[in-house]
Design goal:
The chain is built from nine helices and two strands; from the N terminus they run E-H-H-E-H-H-H-H-H-H-H. It is an all-alpha fold. The chain folds into two domains: 37 residues, no CATH class; 172 residues, no CATH class. The radius of gyration is 21 Å and the shape is globular.
Length: 224
């Protein structure tokens, strides 16, 4: 099943290029073409509402950018910020629920899963990092910082930063929801890598490529 159902788009650039080359005169109506209809997403009906609505909000923003509608993209930012903020809340709640205990018998931490780590973009050689109370506190502080960044981006949109932050947050929330125990152990590592600016291959992927990856990831985790 296709993840994105395409709608009709006017190829204004091709019309202009053809006119410049003398192949055919420019149709003035092409310059005033209506905004392309936003493509519809499929395959998300059974996803948690918080994840589905965040993906839909990111899709609306990216679709506007792809069709050179910067003002429309800017207007989509508040909704995206709200949805990402909800996901960060859910990640923080999970970390709080599973944080290592200071006294009493501690619950054994789940062994870091290389498969889940790979889905989060964490290389295997970084899985031996400590995951105690200090790391969890740092992770929770990082989430607060990310929420603060979102508020700044809502006021002054920087779409490159929003793409990175949305990509990271959606993927982490997806893994935490589908595989909470190993993801809780790996979340502090993922958050640390993000704040350090470690490059992520998904940042430069198209939205369609990301969506396919997210769907495959959730299918893998929920059927394992």
């Amino acid at each position: 099943m296709s993840s994105i159902v395409p709608g009709p788009q006017k190829k204004i650039g091709e019309e202009i290029d053809a006119a410049r080359s003398g192949a055919k005169p420019l149709d003035p109506s092409a310059l005033n073409a209506p905004a392309p209809r936003q493509q519809q997403l499929t395959g998300l009906d059974d996803w948690p509402e918080s994840l589905r609505t965040a993906i839909e909000a990111e899709h609306a923003r990216v679709s506007a950018l792809d069709s050179n509608r910067r003002r429309t993209a800017d207007k989509a930012v508040p909704e995206l910020v709200n949805r990402l903020d909800t996901l960060l809340d859910e990640i923080a709640d999970r970390l709080q629920a599973d944080k290592p205990r200071l006294f009493g018998k501690a619950t054994p931490a789940a062994e870091p899963s290389e498969d889940v780590a790979e889905l989060l973009g964490i290389p295997a050689d970084e899985l031996d990092q400590p995951s105690g109370r200090g790391e969890h506190r740092t992770a929770l502080r990082t989430i607060k910082q990310l929420r603060s960044q979102l508020k700044d981006l809502e006021t002054t949109p920087d779409h490159s930063r929003l793409t990175r932050l949305a990509t990271f947050t959606i993927r982490l929330a997806l893994v935490v929801e589908a595989a909470p125990e190993p993801a809780t152990t790996l979340a502090p590592i993922a958050l640390a890598r993000f704040t350090q600016g470690v490059s992520d291959s998904q940042w430069n992927a198209t939205f369609a490529e990301k969506l396919t990856s997210w769907q495959e990831t959730r299918h893998t985790l929920t059927n394992s």
